[in-house]
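A reminder before we start the practical. When you read a complex entry, don't treat the lines as separate problems. The point of joint prediction is that each chain is placed relative to the others, so the output describes one connected object in space. Small molecules and nucleic acid strands, if listed, are placed in the same frame. In the example below there are two entries. Take a minute to note the order of the lines before looking further.
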Amino acid sequence: MLKEIKILSDHGKQYVPDLRNQPVSALFRGRPVITADITAAEARKAAALCPAGAIDSSSGAVDLGRCAFCCECALAMPEVYRFTNDYRISATRREDLIIKPGQSEPLRIDESAVRKEVRRLFRRSLKLRQVSAGGDNSCEMELSAAGNVNFDMGRYGIEFVASPRHADGIVITGPVSENMSAALEICYEATPAPRLIILVGTDAISGGLFAGSPAIKRDFIESQHIDLYVPGNPAHPLTFINGVMDLTGRK
Amino acid sequence: MSSNRYKVVRNGSSPAGFSEIPVLGYELFHEEVTSMLADERYHCLNYSCFRSGEGFRFICVIADDGSGEIRILSHIKKDDGTPLRSLTASCYAMHIFEREIYENHGVLFDDHPWLKPVRYPHDRADRLSVMDNYPFYEMDSEELHEVGVGPIHAGVIEPGHFRFICNGERVLHLEIQLGYQHRGIEKLFVSAGDGLHRALLSENIAGDSAVAHGLAHAQLLESLAGLEPPVSLQIERCIALELERIGVHIGDTAALCGDVAYQLGQVACEALRTMVINTTQFWCGNRFGKGLIRPGGSNFPLTEESAAEILRVLEEVDRRYANVTDCIYSLPSVLGRFEDIGIVTRKQATSIGAVGMAARTCGVPRDIRATHPFQYYRKMEINPVMQETGDVLARGMLRALEVRESVKIIRRLIENWRNCAKETGRPQYDLRFRPDCLAVSVTEGWRGEICHVAVTDNDGKLVMYKIKDPSMHNWMALALAVRNQEISDFPVCNKSFNLSYCGNDL
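Here is the predicted structure of the whole assembly.
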């Protein structure tokens, strides 16, 4: 018994009290900022550097839906590209993930793109079924961590459940491998409507580094309405929880 | 020792020129491989083939755990549809490689027990072989029933299908069907535009082993380019690898506790794991160490500030984790669920070629850091942590002991790092590779040995890239572990191995 008490006293209080404003380490790579006066030559150079194809060669804009967050652009051209540690980078519209030169204000979700019933039904309770479809297990582990003793998203009624029948939506990770595409669709069909689709991680949003691979089959994702995009490689638990809170209208 | 039957290299050393690798007739090759593998000190790191001229060039890479040699054997086969005599019939550990070769290239093997699909790659030889018609082993009986689980599981984990044949609650047989995670990553290494692209791919092979796979890759390219990393970089890489091991082991301890409803152990370990991976993030900006390992150098050289933070956190984690594991592994209600559950015997482990943790928990001392040291481990003495009982408890205890050992290793590494010249430079993404050669790189991730093999053509371009995650061997250990267990013990057995799906499916 004494041993248990010792563990508990060492353990102390672990939960993050304010998930909206939790400091993360200085080097954490969140929302990038691109200098407003980027030249055409700099944009071309950055685009050529980026193996994920996330940088537009004419404007120099960064697409967070493709970005692998390796920050090589910022290392090579620190006066042009910079990664802040702002982790609130989820979006309801795909095009909002594209960060343009000079854009320095925080990313906030577009309320008009949220379906009406989402806030009415899911604001206080949201049960999700996670499907990994070619994910590398880092996003999956971060999603698990979102429910752990530190991040504890369960305090807002957000939880992962074992069956799609119990779920209000599905959370997809991975670029969607051909071998997993049928199972993913079956899982979605088994979820009662109205149902959400949330894409977590660069791989899920665009295919990421695997976008060109013939082993990937994204027809299903591309034919569906996506409710939330959560970028990252992997997406940080704070990015996911904040995204879902914004989507469902939690303050 | 040299031989006219094989070429000898060492882990991460200069590659073998193709002209130096003897090509044997198949009978001689068969005899040589089976006689080596009959002795426990040898095990196969990789066996694969690639198209060369009008046939296939086969490469078999065998590790000698006694001397630290890596032996490369080769044979060539015409693409004429004739079968080869299977190695599996005499050495069961080869089953996975021959299945992979059959699946990828359609090369048949006589008297292989069952050439089952491995991962249904997109470019498989037989497109008619699909996920839905996997040839499961079946038992015909009125008294038995089958239980199918997956590909989507109850938890937030990767997909795979488990098919149990049960007699009541007792599992008679488990078959594991994988391939759902296949992304075609090996081919992407060959087609990738540059070194940065490949480095990013390498840390996405299995995100829970981003450092271990990233390092196997970086070391392989440096070997192909004839580049010896500076001492400070070698030390930093070893620190990153040990941090990864500590983080995952503690996380697995939490998961094991969760499975047997021991909440104190679970939450205490979850919090400790967070501390460890946040330290990795402090160092390189990513909780999984993505971005940290690069060929030729590093974007995040260790600083005195990071080193001090690592030591500070590990000091606390070490103390608290020791208290928690002390509690966990002396609690009768936990021991009741772990002890004598999911046993893999020593004999089974050696026959299936188990590696890493799965081997060390059954008394088989397989640890690449000790037998084929790489990076700064070459200058250190590593004593593999061992357990003998092969059950869930052994796999839990091994984690507890390895965390303690890794903390000690990191302390030594940081001490040496403080005394060495800081020569860690920037990464090199445009390395030029030696033409017409084959390189082998092996690292010891937290699961076990990770082996990357690459082949270059006469322009020094990559023509083949093979990845082997320890899970490829160890999934069979899980299947054996649950035999004659209650099916309700499957989750705890599965967690105790925590094998990689994407590492197998590639």
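Discuss with your neighbour: The longest strand of chain B covers residues 42-52. What might explain this?
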